[in-house]
């Protein structure tokens, strides 16, 4: 098929779709991650093994969230990048650190849950906070090494303000596709298989034994549900459509046209927005992965409910509750 017959690609779609998503993710993600990290830091001296992974998960989110105002500005200016080539690469690098760092630390949390439930006696006594710190450093290094080659690909047009490519320019798209496929295998497919294997074994163990703590069962099942949502919504569509979109660009470069080019491009832009949602959804892991955050949240909700009841009693003319009785006080501060 002749290149002149290629269907028009709706490049303006990303400018309409991504900014509202980025703004929403920025607000929700910054508030939720900020609160979660603050709660973990408050109990820093009592930080536990799994909390270390949750803490690093939050750091990857904050790192990416701080770049979103620049991306929103970029799309509002009709895809004109005014912040320079170096900062364009840093922005894309932060996205990759967030995406694959999140996958890495979620995998660590899954392995920890597997060890805690399937091998509680044999392994858990030997794991310490030092081990989780070392593993976290290794995850950061591995993700950084995987993401570093991306910074050597062209991201902008010359010295003039222009596009800030998510991947690279047309000239290097074939090489980038090869890099992306390898990256998808090592940074996404292998961690996904590890996570599925861990939770598959966890589910079997939970249903075969009655001795497992009920709270641990509920927390593990809820965490499994969150991971299914994260991988199904944020990670799987992005990796499939990213590589399909790169392949369509390779075909266009070879002057080969297909009718699905525009559909794949639009679907890929939607998957980019969904991938950024992981920074707003990851805080759910605080509630079911961390051991301190849920208790702190329950305490805040209980205190808020008590304040609302006191205010309602005073405005309605009913006899106000002057103070919390000594009998109730331990329940307020029990966490």
Question: How many discrete structural domains?
Answer: 2
**The CATH C-level class name of the largest domain:** Mainly Alpha
Order of helices and strands: HHHHHHHHHHHH
The computed structural class is: mainly alpha
Average pLDDT rating? 83
**What's the Cα radius of gyration?**
24 Å
How would you characterize the overall build of this protein?
The protein is mainly α and 335 residues long. The chain folds into two domains: 7-289, Rhodopsin 7-helix transmembrane proteins (Rhopdopsin 7-helix transmembrane proteins), CATH 1.20.1070; 292-335. The protein is 71% helix and 0% strand. The longest helix is centred in the C-terminal third of the chain and has 40 residues, at 214-253. It starts with 12 loop residues before the first helix and ends with a helix. Mean pLDDT is 83; it is low at 319-335.
């Amino acid at each position: 098929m002749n290149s002149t017959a290629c269907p028009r690609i709706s490049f303006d779609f990303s400018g309409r779709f991504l900014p509202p998503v980025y703004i929403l993710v920025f607000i929700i993600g910054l508030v939720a991650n900020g609160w979660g990290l603050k709660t973990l830091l408050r109990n820093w001296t009592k930080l536990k093994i799994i909390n270390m992974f949750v803490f690093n998960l939050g750091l990857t989110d904050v790192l990416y969230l701080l770049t979103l105002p620049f991306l929103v500005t970029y799309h509002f200016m009709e895809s004109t990048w005014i912040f320079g080539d170096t900062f364009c690469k840093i922005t894309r690098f932060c996205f990759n650190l967030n995406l694959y760092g999140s996958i890495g630390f979620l995998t660590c949390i899954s392995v920890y849950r597997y060890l805690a439930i399937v091998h509680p006696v044999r392994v858990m006594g030997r794991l310490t906070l030092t081990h989780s710190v070392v593993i976290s450093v290794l995850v950061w290094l591995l993700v950084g090494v995987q993401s570093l080659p991306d910074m050597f690909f062209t991201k902008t047009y010359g010295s003039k303000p222009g596009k800030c490519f998510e991947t690279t320019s047309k000239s290097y798209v074939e090489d980038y596709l090869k890099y992306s496929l390898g990256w998808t295998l090592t940074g996404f497919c292998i961690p996904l298989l590890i996570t599925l294997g861990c939770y598959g074994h966890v589910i079997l163990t939970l249903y075969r034994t009655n001795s497992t703590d009920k709270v641990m069962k509920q927390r593990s099942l809820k965490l499994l549900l969150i991971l299914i949502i994260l991988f199904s919504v944020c990670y799987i569509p992005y990796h499939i459509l990213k590589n399909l979109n790169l392949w369509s660009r390779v075909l266009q470069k070879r002057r080969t046209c297909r009718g699905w080019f525009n559909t794949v491009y639009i679907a890929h832009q939607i998957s980019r927005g969904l991938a950024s949602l992981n920074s707003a959804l990851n805080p759910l892991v605080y509630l079911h992965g961390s051991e301190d955050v849920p208790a702190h949240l329950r305490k805040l909700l209980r205190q808020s409910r008590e304040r609302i009841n006191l205010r309602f009693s005073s405005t309605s003319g009913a006899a106000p509750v002057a103070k919390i009785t000594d009998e109730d006080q331990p329940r307020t501060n029990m966490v």
